[in-house]
Amino acid sequence: MYVSERLAAMLGHQPGELLGRNPGVLFSDRTPMAQLDAVAEVVESGQQAVVRLGLRHSTGSEVPVEASFLALPSLSSGDPWYLALYRDAADVPRAEKVLADHGDLLDALARADDPHDVFIELTDRVEDAIRGASCWIGVVNAYGEVDAVSTSSQRDDLVASTVEMIVASGRAATPSTFRVDDLSFELGMELRAHGVHALWSFPVVGRDRRSQGLLIAAHSDRDFPHPSERQMLEHLSSLVAVALEHSSVVSDPAHQILHDDLTDLPNRALITDRLEQAIARLGRDNTRLAALLVDLDRFRQLNHRRGTDMGDEVLVEIGKRLRRSVRLGDTVGRLGGDQFLVLCVAMNGEADASSMAQRIIANVAEPIELSDGTTVSATASVGVTLVDRPGQTASVIINRAESALSAALDAGRGGWALYEEGLRQRVVIRHEVEQALQIAIDSDELLLHYQPLVEISTGRMLGAEALVRWNRPGHGLLPPGAFIEIAEETGLIVALGAWVLDEACRHLRNWPRAADGRLPVVSVNLAAKQLADENLVDTVIGSLTRHGVPAECLGFEVTESMAIDKVDTAIETLRRLGALGCKLSIDDFGIGYATLDYLRRFSMADTIKLDRSFVSGLGESREDTAIVSASLALARSLGLSVVAEGVETRAQYGTLADLGCDLAQGYLLSRPVPLDEAIELWTRTHLIILD
Known about the structure:
The chain contains 25 helices and 24 strands. α6 runs antiparallel to α9, α12 packs antiparallel against α13 and α15 runs parallel beside α17. The strands form five sheets. The protein has an eight-stranded mixed barrel, surrounded by five helices. Helix content is about 45%, strand content about 20%. It is an alpha/beta fold.
């Protein structure tokens, strides 16, 4: 199937004269058949056979060689392949000792799922045999583009640039030498900075005679290799070709084991191994390794909204974009789900890492065209950690990137964060809060406070908003801002919301009527995950029934800026709640991205609550006053009542009265208070009187 040019020349032939012939024609007539039978028996038992024998030269003379025979498994046909390597036994110079002891290389070749493992072993052997040399291997595709590099002693990007230079020079197909002084100024400067004086390049040629790459020895002080070194490098370049050939045959099962089925990127096992190798190579120059953990924002919602097939299309496209974002020599892998790990070698510091993170975020954000003709947009958050010395494990580096990613998510998604000391501790604390909150929901640590809603024209209390507090042991009374976001991200918000709902109904059962016979309307807040919960309406009905509370006394607040993934499902849920008699308010009105569209979609609402940012400027800002006035006019035309949030001064209250606003809520009237204080406020004739 394959005969190297070196072997054919040693026997006085062209390779084509030997291809397709029985290998027996290579052996000298004086080679004992018993010896060949013994070799066959050893090889067929799965072992390597190393023997001295004679090969037949085209002139009829005998060429003494040391031969190594090995069987390689073939997954395509089931029959094994046989590999034979021959070393001229007439000359055993120093460099040839590598070839005299290459049995374990053949064993590694037979076992290797990834030729990269064999290449690293080869480069180490060359560097041991040739003092002052570092060995590099570059693999190129049919277009002459560098697909991969292997080196145990140099930066991947520098090796890739060198391979590209040799390919561009047109001298990649033949053994060549390059003095660094004769190269381009930039590349020459960088190579000199790494102690390189000359490059000895040897082509890696496959069975189809196509150039598959280069084996390069970069020497510190000599222009040319000695003949024995040249022979060794030529021989090893042939072994590189065999390794690539072998990997193409065994690639199917190996690829399945080491690569992600969907994106064809290295999977967690392979990318972790590559990270370990990259860490081990640190310390040889002043550069750093950057690990970037890329997480697609809200991908689960996209998957639910568009379906898993479309979600898979997005993941495949994101994988391609990440590969296009990085430089030659960098690696992209998929850890699982919607998380990818990017390994960037030769980073000069935070500036390089920042540039790479921003490039990834920008590339991911470009619209994605799907097979059904529609487009979707995705954003990514990135956690970055820099590594500047060996001795650290891959798991530690990934954990640090996860900590940085958490910081990026906390900052609002669609951005990036760099790992720094203290981040990990904050992540640990966040995890502790999550666990403690789960316990709090099941125990007696949560309680409700109530903030009154006051009728502006009369100053009397009409109802209240229920706000959860957490009396966490050892931490005191915590406001919602300390734990609600964590509850939403972890999904605990559904259980927490169910507790708030039931506790509010339990309190309403014992809430006294006002002097005029009225009952209050107590409203609770709904999160996006609660609206997506198909059991929400049943949960509401259960709490109302269990505590004997009229549905008209219970209200729900939905934040306008809240990201609702299944809008149609949310609308149907709110309609069913309205049909029960429950009240609905649109909270933080005016600060979302589609205010009018929100009003149109949620036409079952009874009330809008003006965001405090508009109320704070009443009487002082002409713009805020105009916005509040316009919102009131819009609400009246739609038959909605209006609550002004964040009322803190009598001037604001008076302006709202002049504008005809219905209800007010804020510290001027009352802070959120415990149940007994809320009931005491409820029994008053009014909470404020206009001058």
